[in-house]
Amino acid sequence: MVVYGIPNCNTVKKSLDWLKAHQIDFEFHDFKKKGITPEKLNKWCDTFGWEIVLNRKGLTWKKLTKEEQATIDNQEKAITYLVENTSAIKRPIIEKEEVAILISFDESLYSQTLA
């Protein structure tokens, strides 16, 4: 299992703490340091929807002008933006056997899906 995120994100920290508390083995992929491919983002967008993968509540998105935000109006444009601005990816994203199964942190979903 691979957890994708950035280590200083509070939601990622909650997720990692939950996994450790439940003794679930995982590999951590810091997409700030390791980056992320358009192919991986496309898979996630196909699973969750690009509107979900693009974190519109974070500072990276909010730093854009309304005009800049308005230009990101489909999956292709979102992926182009996210490859360059990995902090705007909703996180964490958990993959099991290379299939994305969870996005963000919801303890009840983690319990149902992972425990």
Automatic annotation (TrEMBL):
It comes from the Bacteria. InterPro entries: Arsenate_reductase-like, Thioredoxin-like_sf, Tscrpt_reg_Spx/MgsR. Belongs to the ArsC family. This is Spx/MgsR family RNA polymerase-binding regulatory protein. It comes from Pedobacter petrophilus.
